Amino acid sequence: MGRRMVLLVVAVVMAVLGAGLVYAYAQGAEDRAADDYDTVEVLVARDELAPGTDFRQALDEQRIRLVEVPRGVLIDGSTASNTQFEGRVSLTTIYPGEQIIAEKFGTSEDVDAVGLLSIPTGKLAVTVELSDTGRVGSFTQPGSHVAVFVTSATQPGGPDDLGEPARLLYEDMQVLGVGSRTLPATEAVGPDGLPIDETSVTLLTLAVTQREGERLIALQNNPEKILAFALRNDDSDVVPPPDAED
Asked: Are 38 and 70 contacting, i.e. CB atoms less than 8 angstroms apart?
């Protein structure tokens, strides 16, 4: 009889423990589900922010905005308040969809742009604006090498006339950085010259000589000219332009 009583007590204890474990697991599952569906507003990067990007400017341009994210994916330091970021700039590259945290922002004196870009000896860093097609979509990344073409922004002639062909400007340039900025509707203009909804332009930073930089900057500021890049590798067959040594 005593042995049966012991076995009964053990069975009851095991049943209670089992029920407790099942309840704890179910409660944990409910908590995890709540974290998955319960959302919180936090500041998130909409576009890629290069080192040295001013927080207030990026916020005004809607490159940083409040987004609702599941509580379960919050990272330490994320916040919906912009107070602690006022007067601060990004210290490193911040990618689209990344939550904004204080550790990645500081003063402009904290940003060593030259060191971050690793500019080759004897070269300068020059940034130009391009469309996604002008820079081969998202395939062009820091470290890529590109050939640079230039063509006329206005092509005269009939529908079957190709107009002025694009010509090679430089056969090989190294890409140091890739970023973007959003143009508000007041700046963004369509082919008909009328304002359009906000759009994004790509910023490519290249390693150039002084002469190359002078020409690129002049062309970038010439509304009658369009720059386009072609992604290349060591095996690309590219004939240098006649004035390559200018």
From this structure: yes
